[in-house]
């Protein structure tokens, strides 16, 4: 009665491996996996069943065959093996335990199959989360170094464009350098947002440029033998979305389509865009791959559900697509049949008007963080202090602290071109020593990097404020965050500039701070 009531699959085998008893859970398991219960029921030989396994199951079956023989032949009292046994509908894992029974009875071994799918998936989720955390940490470090390079590239390119007349033969090259730098800046911003899981506020924007940009990146992907077609409407479709969120959803769908095309004679993916009725935009991805069984249509958007072989997918891509559509107020539908390809359709509500409303700046003149995302109030300010008649004005003194020499030199170059006197130091320790050893009161402004060894830029700002309470502060960082902004705001007479926006935001922010001071 106890064996009959158990949820675990249980069977008893004799000394030759013949099954002499199975409980109802064992029979139900065989039926659920599409097998014939008679093949693994009473009278069949378990050792022969293991020998019949083929393909991916063969190695697991051979291992269990050896474990069963060890127990039946007295070489071990107990053996345990974990193995996958996937059904047509989902992934499953089990632990099989073989225990030797006392001699003299009709059965020599007890075989129990314990389902461990939930534990296995929970472990996979933890491993996946750890991987994402490591990738996020790595991306932050790479972004910091890359932003340093971009700040130097864009700063010097802007200076060249300012000095070269349009007809100069090098003006076009400088323009292309600046354009490439801006492109790199946007890519690193979007990758950082994705790595941190940041969801930006939706913006009203045309849909087609976002799709075209994503398709351009996808054409650089690994599927060289796959034809990537487009079918875009000429309509001006405006939607309110986060660009990074939408583009990542589209790229997930195309990557899934590539996986479905393995072995196809004419692999093809089409990305389309059209108006659907008067209130929705339709963005779709269609492939001529293997298709998806109808029974799985309701499950494929579940996190960690996948139809790919073990090790080839985490089951997160389509879940992210569904989440992105939910955040955008849209939906995703699927039309697919086995052998006839698949079509995923993203439906997005159109903006109230197909034209963007002009942005208005309601802030008081002179406010803003200088991150490059908001306009700065125009400021007219002499870079020199008042001087007696007949004498040139004294240059404003700016202390620049950055552990990256290239970035520091670029900042000083931009400042000195604008008429300031810049002093470059390569770390917080040098800055504190220099500040104490010189006439600190002559410094009109501190510009410091945030991420430096031994001390952050914020900590340096606090230390120097103790020495010169009225010193204006400008923090330059590759990772602007609300926490950093709040900490800096508490110090007063301060501003923050995103490092990648240095070329545009540095001088206007410097002038504003000095004017306020």
What does this structure look like?
This protein is an alpha/beta fold and 517 residues long. The chain folds into 4 domains: 2-115, Beta-Lactamase; 125-198, Orthogonal Bundle (Helix Hairpins), CATH 1.10.287.130; 201-358, Heat Shock Protein 90, CATH 3.30.565.10; 397-516, Rossmann fold. 40% of the residues lie in helices and 20% in strands. The chain has helices at 2-5, 24-32, 46-52, 58-72, 117-163, 171-196, 207-218, 243-259, 317-327, 405-417, 428-437, 457-467, 482-491, 502-516; strands at 9-13, 19-22, 78-84, 93-100, 109-115, 203-206, 227-232, 238-241, 268-276, 280-287, 331-336, 342-349, 397-401, 421-425, 445-449, 473-477, 494-498. A 5-stranded antiparallel β-sheet has the order 2-1-5-4-3, sandwiched between helices. The chain has a 5-stranded mixed β-sheet with strand order 7-9-10-12-11. The longest helix has 47 residues, at 117-163. Residues 309-315 and 356-392 have low confidence and may be disordered.
